Amino acid sequence: MSASPVPFLDAEAYLAIDRKAEWKSELHDGEMFPIEAVSVNHAAIDINVAAILKRRLTGTGCRAYGSPLRVQVSKSRYVYPDFQIVCGGVDVIDELEDTVTNPKVIIEILSASTAGHDRGKKFQYYQKLPSLAEYVLISQDQARVEVFTKHADEVWTLHIFDGRERTAKLESIPIELPLIDLFDGIEFPA
Fold this sequence. Notes:
Layout: H1 11-20, E1 25-28, E2 31-34, H2 40-57, E3 62-66, E4 70-74, E5 77-79, E6 83-87, E7 99-100, E8 105-109, H3 115-119, H4 121-127, E9 134-138, E10 144-150, E11 156-162, E12 167-169, E13 176-178, H5 179-182
Parallel strand pairs: 4-7, 8-9
Antiparallel strand pairs: 1-2, 1-5, 3-6, 4-5, 6-8, 9-10, 10-11, 12-13
């Protein structure tokens, strides 16, 4: 017996399903993909990032939003980054205000199952967002942060911060992310 084909979903059908779903999914060119469960380290780093961003963004005109808020990266692609930072007004696709189109910074916490996608295709999708200035990848297996920064000529540069004593610096928003705080309470696998 063969599996039934998955019907192609347009954005309207996807949004109708995802907005009612108990578990969220992303849309990639007509196909829905469920968001994977996270590990203990991922969840702990998530809390640390939220606390740091709340403190550091105060008074900057920017605000951080967590993963329940989706981003429209194209008419046929909707994703849930772990965090997004929007500066100034938030642009949304409709009155439900659950889908943003203008993040300035996107932060993903890497996991073994998503790291390749987050560094590859997902980063390519994010690069199409005119508003995006920086893309931050946080490891959950080691004290490591990668910051990709877009320059005026549309060239992206990578800065790597290894070790708890380092501080990741964002250029588009004048804030720092001390790795000692990002990885507070985190024990890495041996």
